[in-house]
Every structure is written in structure tokens, then in C-alpha cells.
Amino acid sequence: MGSTAYGDWIRDFEAARDERAERGDPEWRTGVPLDPAIRRSVQRFQVGEDGDGAELITKAEAAGDAEYVSAVRMFVAEERNHARLLALLLASGGAPVIASHWSDRVFVTLRRALGLRLELLVLMIAEAVALRYYRALRDGADDVLTREVAGRILADEERHVPFHCHRLRRSLRPLPPPVRLLVTSGWRAVLAAVALVVAVDHGPALRRLGVGRLRFVAEVVRSSGPIAGTMR
To answer: 81 and 20 in contact (C-beta within 8 Å)?
Structure first.
């Protein structure tokens, strides 16, 4: 991707949008009742995906880059689609969505209180955790529908992380190298703490998916090194 423009990212999002439209939705009728632990876990992640993105779009607009705003709007649309897919997955298994969860309220409060740079750093914590979670759901779920939905979301998240890294690299570039190192090291420390909280909160589901709590945390922390390096 280019170092300044977002045209390539826009084309990337457009290609993914067109591919989704051509592919269509999964076959929801193949759904089966979800394991109770996995159902509760998916319900909590569905809440986290179900934001309108208005604050992020507003901050992107204030940054004054029309191409970046367009790309952010497409990112938000993909996140909303994730929430829709998870809601339909739950419905296909006879489970409702939930109105809220404390973890989502904490993340939303933090993100809304910060500027664009810090909001993206907080968002990237959620994205890094989501990468490992959806991989576990794709690889460990018993039914085909859950694996398909998780795989679709994971493919999007694998594009979202470099997109946000691209913006953060530009945002952090004016800072002296020691400060950039301090910021990204602090980000990794907070991510490790959040991964531990998620591992405890979603522990029964992770065990059901074949991923222990400690393994989940260790793999999230391990993945954060290359991400932090890219942001620097």
C-alpha cells in the first residue's frame, strides 16, 4: 500500500464488498443449537461488533483526509456486517442477541473519550484479540455454519489490522523513536492485560474450542510484536 494515499485501501474494501455481494450469505438453515459456553461467548462478541462507528467517522473527518474517511466508512460497514452475521448465527441456533456487556461498555467509553490516534490504539487492542478469537472459533467449532461465519469475519479482520497499522504508522511518525517505542510497548502491555481478561471471561468457550486460557493469552501477546513493529 502507498505511504500516504488510501486509494489502494478503498479498492481493497470495494473488492471485498463486491465479493460478499456475489457470494451471498451462508446457508442459515444449516444452523444447530450452539454449545451454551460458545453461545454466551458469541453473544458478547456480537455486542462488541454492533457499534455504529459514528465517533470514529467523525474523528476521521476531522483529520481532513477524504480518502481516509471513505476507507473508514467501509471499515465500519464491515464491522456492522460482522454483527449482522453473528446475530443471524445466534438466531439460527435458537439464541437471542444480548443488549450489552460490560467489556463493550468499557471499550466504547475509552474510545469516545480519546482522539483519533488513541482511539485507533484502543481499537487495535480489540482487533488483535479478535484475530485469535475468530481463528479459534473457525478451527474449533463443531458445526459447519459457525466455522463458516467465523472464517468470513476472520478474513476481514486480517485486512483491518494492516489498515489501522497504516494509519497509526503515519500518526506516530512525527514522534521521536524512543517515544514511538514507549507508545507501542505500552500498547502491547495493555493488550496483554486485556487478553487475560478475555481469556478469563470466555474461558469455558475457549476450552470448548480447544484453546486453553494461557495459550490464548500467549498467542495474542506473541502476535502483538509484529503489529507493534509495523505501527512503529
So the answer is: yes
